[in-house]
Amino acid sequence: MLSSLPQTKTLTTAPLLGATRSESSSADLQNQFLTLLIAQLKNQDPTNPMDNSQLTTQLAQINTLAGIENLNTTLSSISGQINANQSIQNTLLIGHGVMVPGDALLVGEEVTTPFGFETNAAATAVTATIKDSGGNVVAQLELGGMNAGVHTFQWDGTLEDGSTAASGQYTVSIDASNESGALTATPLSYAMVYGVTPTASGVVLNLGTYGSASLDQIKQIL
C-alpha cells in the first residue's frame, strides 16, 4: 500500500548583502585634499589662480566617497542582523523531518520512513523500485502521473509476495517518463534535524546517522 504525503513548503534561502571597505577612508582623503589645497593656495600664481570648477569637482568626489563609506557601514550592519535572524529561524528546524537527496529508506517494526523524488517536468508514469541491502528487488510501486516538483510518499512495507518487509535499510530508485521520453528524477530520503551549526560557508544541519546537509539541499519540510 502507498499513500502520498501532503505537499509542504520548500525552504528557500535568500542571498545576503555584503560590504567592503576601501583601502583609503574618506576622512584620509579629505585630510590629504585639504593639505594639498592649502599648499596650492599658498603657492598659486596670482596671475593664474586655481580653477574653481576643479575645486568643486574634487569636493564632489570626496563627498561621494564619504557617502559610499557610510552606505557600506549601514549594509554591513544590516547583513549582520540578517545573519543573526536567520540563525534563530534555522533552529526552528530542529526536531523536524526533512527530505534531502538520497535513496535510503528505513523499515522498522511498525513504521517506514517516507521516500520521494524531485523532477523538473511533468511525468505521465512514475515507478519506484525498492531493493534490499543485497540489491534484490523486493517491491515495485506504480505512482502514476505526477506534476513537476517534489513529491513524497509513505510505503507500508508490503513486499511483492504480500509479506511484510523485515526491519532494516532499503534503497529506492525512481523511473519517470512522459511523451518525450525518460525524465531525470532525483530520489529523496527522509532525515530528522538534530542540530543547526552556522559556518563561514553557510548553515549546516546535523541529520544524525544520515550525516549533514546544507539548507539548499532541503527539498521539503515535513
From TrEMBL:
InterPro entries reported for this sequence: FlgD, FlgD/Vpr_Ig-like, FLgD_Tudor
The encoding gene: flgD
FlgD Tudor-like domain ranges (all copies): 85-219
Protein name: Basal-body rod modification protein FlgD
Its job: Required for flagellar hook formation. May act as a scaffolding protein.
Family that this chain belongs to: Belongs to the FlgD family.
Pfam families, per the entry: FlgD, FlgD_ig, FLgD_tudor
UniProt key word Cell cycle: no
Statement: the UniProt record of this protein carries the keyword Chloroplast: no
Domain FlgD/Vpr Ig-like: from-to ranges: 110-179
Alphabetically ordered keywords of this record: Bacterial flagellum biogenesis, Cell projection, Cilium, Flagellum
